[in-house]
Amino acid sequence: MSNGSGSPARTLVAGVGNIFLGDDGFGVEAARVLAGQDLPEGVEVADIGIRGVHLAYQLLDGYDTLVLLDATARGGEPGTLYLIDATDPGTRQQPDGVALDGHRMSPDAVLALLDALCAGTGAQPPRRTLVVGCEPASVEERIGLSPQAAAAVPEAVRMVGELIRAEAVVT
């Protein structure tokens, strides 16, 4: 896919989370595994970790698609994977009462900051924003994923592979 300028579309796959909080490190681990895969031209994989402000500023460089990998508590069984389309800027509201903290920004807060930065600079946010999330079993202080989250990593990598390949052929 071309991004209209004749160059290949740019996709950023960002693994977010805190590896010191158990399953919160799911996105970072999935990004690590994905980075070892053969990926289409124009796809970058980044271990963002807890650097949410860095992610928002990196997105100002002009990406067509953003895929976030993250722990996502939605009430399902631990290890359940979710695909969430967060493309609509109306879904990017920073939660009330949450201060802008570069080390504790949820993906919602990062996307809200990105929208504010784009409005102020004239930059364009990614055309499409997707979240591949994993229901955590535990986000208590510890290093390493629960067995359920660890077992979900290969399927998440497969899902992201399909998503980025599909994005590469969409016009």
UniProtKB/TrEMBL annotation:
One annotated GO biological process: proteolysis
Family: Belongs to the peptidase A31 family.
GO molecular function, a single term: peptidase activity
Record-linked SUPFAM superfamilies: HybD-like
One Pfam family here: HycI
Domain of life: Bacteria
NCBIfam families (alphabetical): hydrog_prot (TIGR00072)
Organism lineage string: Bacteria, Bacillati, Actinomycetota, Actinomycetes, Kitasatosporales
InterPro entries: Pept_HybD-like_dom_sf, Peptidase_A31
Keyword Hydrolase set for record: yes
Name this protein carries in UniProt: Hydrogenase maturation protease
